């Protein structure tokens, strides 16, 4: 008998897709060329809020290579086409129409006003310069609190308000907990804080790009999107094209982080102009366009009140958010803060909770999902205020957390929001992290340095986070008025030679699905890892799916593949029995073979695939195929958790923060590929730390994005970050057959508060109890010296560097 | 990103390059390593009519010794400057400042002369050039002229170079045996300086005999911190006297306010960083 095959799940396999992705020698959308293809360039408004008084395209139309120049009246004469918003969070939510091109009014700097189609991208770009647009200023709405006041200037006067919606959850009213007002009234200790979630740019590596070929039976759209299936359906619904006449392909896609979850005006505009001209048309944005017009993330004001007993037992949590939607609504934007509603209570046993979020329109780029989408904001607020409560109580911040968190023996645990956490072990992850970090040793060093007034002070920050991911049970999405389900599709094709094609509806954009799915299917079917090919992102092969976001691929998409594999085995079984002249009841399947119990007879799955292909001798009534598909709708979310610890050095003379040590122990359930999991954690940490220390999208008072290049919008590189210590505990999810939870967002969600808590901890003895993100050197230094916590951010002059060059006469 | 149309010439020598500039008129641009020019072209922040590419001009590259100075060709890359033994021995300050420029890719393409001629107030090489009293050798239609560093930097992105002139090489007086340090303060490794301090100190038996200090990004052009220099000379190279001298760093400056630093914070940084730079240069 053959030896047992070593399981693929758990192997740190190098990723199949990396060679082509890293070298760029692959099918990025902008690399694609089809015969007769034209190029589109979009002229964008420099004004944040203005009436368009005239657009003159005469000169542009005469320029070399120009095929057409269109404005709103050409592409949408009825002014009826608007970008879809799939998440009407309340029945009375206000939803302004977002056109493909602005017709009469521009509502944010970067909104498209005209499109040039030319034979080459360069000719299109040159002609764009020749379009003359006259604008008449309208009042610019930027501040979300001012926007809500009576008599405020309005982004969309026809809506008569800047308020998009108010969404409330109250545990007293929902019957899932007590009244938070009672908790506040009876509180022994109350701490209230205002936190600000600054605006962030998702900063995916590949800018957005779309190519539309309208010349075949199915109009084909290639797009650098993370949601090809949603894009297909929405394109049909929005433009009135029959769905079966559209094929969408997301070829290799270079990152998304939520930033490619939209259904874009640029995508539908490219479809529209390609159809008008009956020619293939490609649009690819520049990095500057991307930063100005692709949706941003975060941007909330958070007013948080926490109540507790003197002994540290928390008794209530009240959350009031104001969230900036920007000028219009993104595909899921109104629901992004709502995804956080269920996470502010985090791992703690709050008896009373109230959440209210007011979404607001401003004359800025729209916001929408960005890695974590609502949950990083929630985790930040709760983990920051737990530290503030600990100070108020004179307790160690970890001791306070431990006193209030759900103990491992209390799972499954139903929270004050009504969610049931299936599993977790906060004690195990925390004790491992504390040991790796040397928490006690660092606290001793901190005291020693504080005592001798060291100019460089040490700060220690904690974040014991959980998240809800694996989006999502369809019935829950329904109860939240989301416009779709949360299932995923998977299929398996057994080829005559015994090789396997796996089809997944979850659409990778860098995550490593091809490798992980191959490992999972290799185990399920007992075939070699190398014999599995994973197909994705093309609605012609992967015909059904809900794509990739919310750490859903493994916990939902891969489970659909597992279910499909189970069906393959079930179909193969009667055929195997027939081939071996045995009874099905005597068969066992393991390691890719059916064996007849008590004999040495066996038949490999590959042999059955060939027999099915030939179909010469199958049992009566058996369909000659092993191919199978499944749709999996999760019964619950998954709840990864972990303990993250950060140590920072703060140079009190300059305010510079140096991240010195970062330890995280994540519990993401069963790990399919440790290398991929580590990569997700490392990248997630970098992104979350960047929010704490570096990144901010800053607008000036006229609504112009000041941080519009990577010279001004600071992304950290490896040189700016320490070597992370990452480890894991493994508490399997009990709600899916693999026991997996998801890891795509964990690092980002957990790390931001750990770092800010550490920064504040380092300088708290100067009387500092908050510093706004990003905690820039000037902000930290100003706070140490008794100034405000939000210094700087909006400069009035240029201080050198690329962003300040606008003088053509300067010498090189 | 696609630049506006321009004419392109790649002359083979300095004289030919100067002629090309004269022919092209005042809207020509010189392309050296391209690390500042190309982004500006691609973003259409500049639209020169002609690009004069120096990549074929071989006699502008390399470092040589010339009496009491070393001479650095304008087309010498940052990478070459970092590794040049003459620079390390006689003008270590320039090597140390060059080490902080951007990232390895930029240092392989970007040039010493290009960075100086670009005259970015946040660039890291102008301040060391001013501190060391470098001289800029400029070729024009009527021959060559030499401009001292203090006169070369005129304003924000503006130098003494005329549109038909070319920076050929930079003479740096030898500072052999001097201690040097460049203290750069930025938010991420690849970012421009918020403030930088170039310090060069000659110590004699524990006493500071000579000191040269210049500041990056405290004005539209690099600022020589003469107050600091005067306060250092003759003083013991210890923490106390360095701190007292560094308190003069921001004297007479009125730096810009941007998102990273307002005027007050920049002045404070200049003092703190000057203290650190001088201490490191003096080895104390």
Automatic annotation (TrEMBL), chain A:
Show the ranges annotated as biased composition (Gly residues). Answer: 789-803
Q: Which cofactor does it need?
A: Mo-molybdopterin cytosine dinucleotide
Region (Disordered) residue spans: 789-812
Q: Which domain of life is it from?
A: Bacteria
Q: Where is the Aldehyde oxidase/xanthine dehydrogenase a/b hammerhead domain?
A: 23-139
Q: Which Pfam family, an example, fits this chain?
A: MoCoBD_2
Sample GO molecular function, one term: oxidoreductase activity
Protein's UniProt keywords contain Oxidoreductase: yes
| The name this protein goes by in its record | Carbon-monoxide dehydrogenase large subunit
State the organism of origin. Answer: Labedaea rhizosphaerae
Automatic annotation (TrEMBL), chain B:
Q: Where is the FAD-binding PCMH-type domain?
A: 1-177
**PROSITE patterns referenced in this protein's UniProt entry, alphabetically:** FAD_PCMH
Q: Which Pfam families does the UniProt record give? A: CO_deh_flav_C, FAD_binding_5
What's a Gene Ontology MF term here? oxidoreductase activity
Keyword Transferase included in the entry's annotation: no
UniProtKB keywords: FAD, Flavoprotein, Oxidoreductase
Q: Which domain of life is it from?
A: Bacteria
Which SUPFAM superfamilies does the record cross-reference, listed alphabetically? CO dehydrogenase flavoprotein C-terminal domain-like, FAD-binding/transporter-associated domain-like
Fetch the InterPro entries from UniProt: CO_DH_flav_C, CO_DH_flav_C_dom_sf, Diverse_Substr_Oxidored, FAD-bd_PCMH, FAD-bd_PCMH-like_sf, FAD-bd_PCMH_sub1, FAD-bd_PCMH_sub2, Mopterin_DH_FAD-bd
Coiled-coil intervals in this record? Answer: none
Report the PANTHER family cross-referenced here.
Answer: XANTHINE DEHYDROGENASE SUBUNIT C-RELATED
Its protein name is Carbon-monoxide dehydrogenase medium subunit
Q: What is the lineage of its organism?
A: Bacteria, Bacillati, Actinomycetota, Actinomycetes, Pseudonocardiales
């Amino acid at each position: 008998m053959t030896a047992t095959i070593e399981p693929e799940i758990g192997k740190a396999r190098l990723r199949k897709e990396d060679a082509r992705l890293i070298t760029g020698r692959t099918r990025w959308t902008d690399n694609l060329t089809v015969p007769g293809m034209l190029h589109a360039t979009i002229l964008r408004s420099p004004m944040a809020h203005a009436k368009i008084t005239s657009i003159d395209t005469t000169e542009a139309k005469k320029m070399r290579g120009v095929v057409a120049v269109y404005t709103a009246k050409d592409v949408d004469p009825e002014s009826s086409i608007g970008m879809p918003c799939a998440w009407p969070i309340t029945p009375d939510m206000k939803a302004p129409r977002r056109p493909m091109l602005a017709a009469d009014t521009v509502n944010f700097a970067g909104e498209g006003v005209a499109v040039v189609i030319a034979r080459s991208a360069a000719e299109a770009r040159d002609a764009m310069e020749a379009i003359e647009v006259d604008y008449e200023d309208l009042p610019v709405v930027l501040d979300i609190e001012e926007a809500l006041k009576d008599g405020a200037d309005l982004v969309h006067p026809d809506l008569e308000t800047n308020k998009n919606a108010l969404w409330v959850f109250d545990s007293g009213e929902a019957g899932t907990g007590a009244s938070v007002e009672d908790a506040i009234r009876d509180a022994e200790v109350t701490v209230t804080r205002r936190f600000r979630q600054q605006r962030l740019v998702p900063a995916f590596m590949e800018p957005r790009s779309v190519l539309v070929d309208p010349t075949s039976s199915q109009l084909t759209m290639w797009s650098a999107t993370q949601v090809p299936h949603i894009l297909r359906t929405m394109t049909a619904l929005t433009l009135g094209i029959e769905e079966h006449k559209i094929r969408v392909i997301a070829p290799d896609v270079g990152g998304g982080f939520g930033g490619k979850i939209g259904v874009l005006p640029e995508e539908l505009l490219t479809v529209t102009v390609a159809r008008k001209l009956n020619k293939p048309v490609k649009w690819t944005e520049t990095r500057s366009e991307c930063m100005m017009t692709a949706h941003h993330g975060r941007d909330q004001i958070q007013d948080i009140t926490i109540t507790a007993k003197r002994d540290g037992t928390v008794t209530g949590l009240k959350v009031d958010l104001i969230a900036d939607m920007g000028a219009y609504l993104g595909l899921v934007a109104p629901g992004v803060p709502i995804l956080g509603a269920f996470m502010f209570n985090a791992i703690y046993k709050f008896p009373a909770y109230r959440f209210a979020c007011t979404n607001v329109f401003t004359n800025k780029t729209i916001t929408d999902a960005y890695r974590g989408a609502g949950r990083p904001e929630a985790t930040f607020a709760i983990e920051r205020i737990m530290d503030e409560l600990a100070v108020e109580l004179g307790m160690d911040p970890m001791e306070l957390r431990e006193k209030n968190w759900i103990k491992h023996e209390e799972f499954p645990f139903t929270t004050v929001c009504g969610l049931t956490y299936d599993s977790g072990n906060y004690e195990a992850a925390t004790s491992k992290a504390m040991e790796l970090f040397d928490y006690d040793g660092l606290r001793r060093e901190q005291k020693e340095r504080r005592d001798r007034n060291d100019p460089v002070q040490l700060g220690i920050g904690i974040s014991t986070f959980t998240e809800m991911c694996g989006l999502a049970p369809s019935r829950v999405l329904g109860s939240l008025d989301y416009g779709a389900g949360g299932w995923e599709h998977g299929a398996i094709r057994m080829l005559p030679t015994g090789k396997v094609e796996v089809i997944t509806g979850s659409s990778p954009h860098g995550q490593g699905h091809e490798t992980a799915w191959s490992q999972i299917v290799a185990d399920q079917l007992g075939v070699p890892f190398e014999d599995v090919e994973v197909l994705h992102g093309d609605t012609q092969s992967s015909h059904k799916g809900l794509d990739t976001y919310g750490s859903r691929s493994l916990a939902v998409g891969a489970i659909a593949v597992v279910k499909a594999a189970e069906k393959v085995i079930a179909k193969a079984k009667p055929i195997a029995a027939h081939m071996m002249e045995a009874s099905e009841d005597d068969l066992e399947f393991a390691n890719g073979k059916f064996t007849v119990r008590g004999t040495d007879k066996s038949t490999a799955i590959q042999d059955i695939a060939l027999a099915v292909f030939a179909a010469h001798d199958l049992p009566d009534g058996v369909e000659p195929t092993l191919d199978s598909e499944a749709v999996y709708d999760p019964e619950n979310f998954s709840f990864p958790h972990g303990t993250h610890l950060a140590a920072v050095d703060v140079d009190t003379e300059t305010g510079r923060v140096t991240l010195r040590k970062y330890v995280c122990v994540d519990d993401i359930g069963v790990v399919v590929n440790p290398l991929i999991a580590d990569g997700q954690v490392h990248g997630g940490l970098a992104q979350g730390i960047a929010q704490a220390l570096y990144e901010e999208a800053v607008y000036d008072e006229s609504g112009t994005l000041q941080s519009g290049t990577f010279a001004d919008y600071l992304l950290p590189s490896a040189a700016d970050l320490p070597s992370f210590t990452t480890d894991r505990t493994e508490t399997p999810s009990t709600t899916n057959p693999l026991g997996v939870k998801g890891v795509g967002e964990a690092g980002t969600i957990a790390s931001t508060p750990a770092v800010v808590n550490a920064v504040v901890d380092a300088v708290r003895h100067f009387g500092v109890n908050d510093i706004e993100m990003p905690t820039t050197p000037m902000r930290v230094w100003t706070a140490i010296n008794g100034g405000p916590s939000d210094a700087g951010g909006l400069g009035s002059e240029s201080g050198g560097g690329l962003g300040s060059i606008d003088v053509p006469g300067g010498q090189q | 990103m696609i630049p506006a149309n321009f004419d392109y010439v790649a002359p083979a020598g300095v004289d030919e390059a100067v002629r090309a500039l004269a022919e092209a008129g005042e809207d020509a641009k010189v392309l050296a390593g391209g690390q500042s020019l190309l982004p500006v072209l691609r973003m259409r922040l500049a639209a020169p009519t002609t690009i004069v590419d120096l990549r074929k001009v071989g006699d502008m590259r390399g470092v040589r010794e010339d009496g009491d100075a070393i001479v650095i060709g304008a087309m010498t890359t940052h990478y070459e400057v970092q590794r040049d033994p003459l620079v390390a021995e006689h003008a270590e300050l320039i090597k140390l400042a060059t080490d902080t420029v951007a990232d390895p890719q930029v240092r392989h393409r970007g040039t010493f002369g290009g960075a100086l001629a670009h005259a970015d107030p946040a660039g890291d090489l102008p301040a060391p050039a001013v501190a060391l009293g470098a001289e800029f050798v400029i070729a024009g239609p009527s021959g060559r002229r030499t401009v001292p560093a203090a006169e070369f930097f005129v304003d924000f992105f503006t130098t003494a170079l005329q549109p038909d002139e070319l920076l050929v090489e930079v003479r740096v007086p030898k500072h052999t045996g001097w201690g040097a340090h460049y203290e750069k303060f930025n938010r991420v490794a690849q970012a421009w300086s918020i403030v930088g301090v170039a310090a060069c100190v000659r110590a004699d038996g524990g006493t500071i005999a000579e000191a040269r200090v210049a500041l990056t990004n405290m004005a539209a052009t690099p600022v020589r911190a003469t107050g600091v220099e005067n306060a250092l000379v003759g003083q013991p190279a210890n923490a106390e006297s360095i701190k007292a001298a560094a308190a003069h760093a921001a004297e007479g400056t009125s730096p810009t306010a941007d998102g990273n630093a307002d005027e007050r914070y920049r002045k404070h940084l200049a003092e703190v960083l000057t203290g650190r730079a001088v201490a490191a240069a003096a080895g104390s």
